Write the C-alpha cells for this entry.
Amino acid sequence: MIASKPNPWPELPYREWRETCETLHLWTQVVGKVRLALTPWLNHSWHVPLYVNARGLTTSPIYYEDRVFEIVFRFQSARSGNCDERRVGRASCP
C-alpha cells in the first residue's frame, strides 16, 4: 500500500479569514479596473486578468504614457539578492 502524502496546503477556514477574503476581492477589482482603463482591449476582456506567479498574483506589465508598471499581490514574501523594484504601499495611495 502507498502511504498518502500530507496535504501541503494550509487550511483556510472561511469564517476565520472572511474579512481578508472580502478585502482581497475588493482590491483585485480595483486592479482590474486599472487594467481595464489602461490596457488596449482584447476579445472577451483577455487583457484584464491577474496571473498566478510564484508568490501571489500579478497583472503583467501595464504601459502608461512613458512608463511601464506592474501591480503585484505578494502573498509570500521572500527577499532575494539584487532586486530593483519600487514598492507603493497602501498608505501612499490616494
Residues 43-80 form one domain. Residues 90-94 have pLDDT under 50 and may be disordered. The radius of gyration is 17 Å.
